[in-house]
Every structure is written in structure tokens, then in C-alpha cells.
Amino acid sequence: MNYYFAPMEGITGYIYRNAHNKVFGGIDKYFSPFISPIAKKDLKTKERNDILPEHNESLHLVPQILTNSAKDFVRIGKILANDYEYEEINLNLGCPVRTVVSKKKGSGFLAYPEKIDEFLDIVYNELPNLKLSIKTRLGMTDEEEFDELLEIYNKYPLSELIIHARIQADYYKYTPRLHAFKKAAGMTNHKLCYNGDLCSLEDIEAFHKEFPMVDTVMIGRGLLTNPALLQGTLTKENLLTFHNEIYTSYREVLSGDTPVLYKMKELWCYMGALVPDDKKELKQIKKLID
């Protein structure tokens, strides 16, 4: 089985990725929090720092781009390929956040399949040698929308199709639509990666049993909650090492205590589930800088 670490804006930047790779490992590909291009402008300093090869030397990183503009995607794609020597870029068609969707980006772009077709046609003409993978949902409001979307995806030589088995309207609620994923798996020859609610080794084993032909999964919240999920055992020692690795690195690159506290607080919003008996301490963490 191949394991990918899903991106999470504000959390899984290069500091987190390096700490996770150093302490736990087991990840075949990490994906960067999305780069959101601004017309006629280069990468933002934060985005550049996150994808710099020297900040990701010991791991396999795939930069992810969030846009509905083929022109902007091509421009940033050329920068990533030519200046930073990336061979694969991921297009985000999965983000369900309303502020993103309202701009017709992320899963909001899925409502315009003909525009996606035009987008991909331009990208493949302009970036013929760059590997392109797509992270997608099943549609905006109905999983039946995926039939048309998949027909479009099948027209292009995607390096990989990562399917989060929900529609945009599901957000992160409800049970993933495995029946729709199964249907999609039978309608494409693309290399598939499954994403959605894999929060334990038991979940992964159950998925593999049902879909033995799919050898790649992407995990997000499950790994954020338990960074040792793939190892099966989390110890106090490696959790402390992981925590301190992140904390020390943030102290080195951020100015002042408040930004560091914000970062560590975000982390504990997920990892707090590991220590359900320490509610008092978690409450104190959550009260910090409120």
C-alpha cells in the first residue's frame, strides 16, 4: 500500500512535514498546502519557503495549486518545474470551504465541467512534460455529476486521480460514498488514490479488503490526530519528540511567542483526541490567545 499525507492549510507546512518524516516516516508522498496564484505575480514568500527543495530534502513533496485559471496554473507550473525542478503538480478540485467554492475554485470548479475540460486542454498543451495529478470530489451537489467529470478526466494522461469520496455539499460530514468511488474505479484506467475518513489501521484494512485493486490512499485528519497512525503504536516518547521538533523549528522561524502559540494550538486541536483524559490541560491550551 502507498500512503499519501493530505495537505492542511496552516498546519502541514514544511516544518510539520519534516518533523513527521523524521520521527514517524512511512509516507510515500506529502502534498503541500495549496498555492493560490495571484495574476501576473510570482509565488508568495510563504509559498516559496514551503516548497523550496532545501526545505523538503528528505521527503517526496508534490506542490498543490488551487485555481480556475489555466493561465495562472501554467505560469506557476513553469516556475515550479523550471526554477525548483518539480516533476509533478497537483490540481486542487476538492477543497469544500465556502470562501473557496464561491470563487469557483476547489470543488466549486466542479460545477463547470466544460471549463475544466478547457483548463486541462490548455495545461497539457503548455506543460506537456509535467506530470499532473488531480485531487477531486465527486461533484458539487450530486454524485451523479461525477460521470461527466470522469469522462473529462479520462481524456487526459493524468499521472494520478485522487478521489475524496464526498460531494462538496457533504463538506466533511456523513459517511464517504464508497459506492460512488467503486463505480468510478470501474470507469477509468487512471491510477487511483482514495481519500476519506481513514482514521485507523482498521479503516485502511477494511478499505483494502473492499478495494484490493486500489493500492494508494491519502490520509489527512487521521494522521493529524495520530501522527503514528501507520506505525500502529504511539508512545509518549515519540509524541514528545515530534512535538518538540515542531515547536523548536517554529521558534527559529517565527517572530515572538504569539505566532508560535497559534501554530501549536492548531496542532493540539487535532492531537488533543490522543489524550481524552486530560480535558483540563486541553481546555487551557484552547484558551491560549483567545
Rg calculated over all Cα atoms: 19 Å
Spatial strand sequence of the major β-sheet:
3-2-1-9-8-7-6-5-4
CATH class of the largest domain: Alpha Beta
What is the first-to-last residue Cα distance? 41 Å
Q: How many strands in all? A: 9
Query: Which blocks of ≥5 consecutive residues have pLDDT under 50?
Result: none
User: Which descriptor suits the 3D outline?
Assistant: globular
Average predicted local confidence, pLDDT: 94
Counting structural domains, the number is 2
How does this structure look, described?
The chain has 290 residues and is α/β, with parallel strands linked by helices. The chain folds into two domains: 2-225, Aldolase class I (TIM Barrel), CATH 3.20.20.70; 236-287, no CATH class. 42% of the residues lie in helices and 12% in strands. The protein has a nine-stranded parallel β-sheet. Helix 7 links the parallel strand 7 (160-164) and strand 8 (192-195). The longest helix is centred in the C-terminal third of the chain and has 18 residues, at 236-253. The model has no long low-confidence stretch (mean pLDDT 94).
